[in-house]
């Protein structure tokens, strides 16, 4: 319980001044106290109204000392806690420390600082008071057993000074996730989510429950959860950039955990992200009306046991461009990319396009693609299919002769010896195999960047292209 003691050297009715814990001294909280005795210390049970005011406007001559007492929560006679001090944008707010910029740096709004010695000790404390348009800056470090629901819209939430790492430690918000996001137009940047597990096996790092607008997840990580992100359905969009999803697992064969599981939403966009080692579930599963996935890595590695590397079970309009995929020898499912495996009735348009992807399968046999006969269009442009033990291109009922194919190349997985390395994946062929990738022109003008390593983008040089996801050695 917090005890507030006024160390007094003032006249009755003087306004006391105190800085919030860990804050700069040019940002003050003014406390108006009717002191019965100028030299007496105030009792800790007084309700103190607070009004933010800068140092320049204060005429106080007293100091309030805030100390923390050990023990449990306050009893029923304690007064309500006054709201913690919130940093105003501009003067008095600390700049985000290195390394790197975050989405919070350019965001306008009231700033809530989170972390040890900050006005809000934990993200959940900030979530309880967050208002539309707020900027929440979480100091880098580990936050254990702290879960939250973010219901305000227009929030920008960032780890500053590095990653803010949230460990579930057996806790969940609403029995669902480490964070439940229900407000519209939320951006989350430089935050990691670890070990989310709930009894129904749908525990997620983030449960996306917004009813409108967009959820943006940038430069974040999802590790060892039952699901990385799990979304509801609705007229919403989700965008993921520069993020990592790894080792999702429910621990049972009765329910599958997916690194990313998107419901029937309007649009999913994924760019320069890294998905690996889902356990029996899929590395990416999207039921969205439109799914666009660019310049990302999807990998089993030598020991991964995922089902599909990417799965679009309800069809929709799907575009995969510039991605690098590895299906490992222990994978549970023989197919790398699946489309319409469960239904083709959710959306009026069901088309699949793959351009400049490299798919390497060290699992023997299998299929690079699955598409049902009801697929309206299958377009394959400048992809590299590199298999082991003579895999087939296509299964699921779609006639291979109906696919529109341009500049695709078939090779052996052994010609990509670095493709199975999770620590440092290299999807560049051997020198002997390289000439087979040469194309005579530019088959896809929309392919403008490649990804020489996870999260990195590199502009493609003008001129004729190579088949596959890379245009030069990493």
Structure explained in plain terms:
With 474 residues, the protein is mainly beta. The chain folds into two domains: 2-68, no CATH class; 111-459, Single-stranded right-handed beta-helix, Pectin lyase-like (Pectate Lyase C-like, 3 Solenoid), CATH 2.160.20. The longest helix is centred in the first third of the chain and has 7 residues, at 123-129. The chain contains one helix and 38 strands.
Tell me the number of helical segments per DSSP (H or I, 4 or more residues long). 1
Give the amount of beta strand, in percent.
35-45%
The first-level CATH class of the largest domain is given as Mainly Beta
Q: Please identify which CATH superfamily of the largest domain we are dealing with.
A: Single-stranded right-handed beta-helix, Pectin lyase-like
Oligomer: single chain
Largest sheet: 21 strands, parallel
Structural class: mainly beta
Mean pLDDT over the full residue set? 84
* Coarse shape: globular
Could you give the distance between the termini? 56 Å
Brief digest:
This protein has 2 domains: 2-68, no CATH class; 111-459, Pectate Lyase C-like (3 Solenoid), CATH 2.160.20. Helices cover 1% and strands 38% of the residues.
Structural features:
about 475 residues, mainly beta, Pectate Lyase C-like, 21-stranded parallel beta sheet, 10-stranded parallel beta sheet, about 40% strand, disordered N terminus
Which helices and strands occur, and which strands form pairs?
Layout: E1 2-7, E2 15-18, E3 27-32, E4 50-54, E5 63-68, E6 111-114, H1 123-129, E7 135-144, E8 148-150, E9 156-167, E10 177-181, E11 186-189, E12 191-194, E13 204-208, E14 214-218, E15 221-223, E16 227-231, E17 234-241, E18 244-246, E19 260-262, E20 265-271, E21 274-276, E22 284-286, E23 290-294, E24 297-299, E25 310-312, E26 317-321, E27 324-327, E28 335-339, E29 351-355, E30 358-364, E31 367-370, E32 377-381, E33 384-388, E34 392-395, E35 404-406, E36 409-412, E37 449-450, E38 458-459
Parallel strand pairs: 6-7, 7-9, 8-10, 9-11, 9-12, 10-13, 11-14, 12-15, 13-16, 14-17, 15-18, 16-19, 17-20, 18-21, 19-22, 20-23, 21-24, 22-25, 23-26, 24-27, 25-28, 26-29, 27-30, 28-31, 29-32, 30-33, 31-34, 32-35, 33-36
Antiparallel strand pairs: 1-5, 2-3, 3-4, 37-38
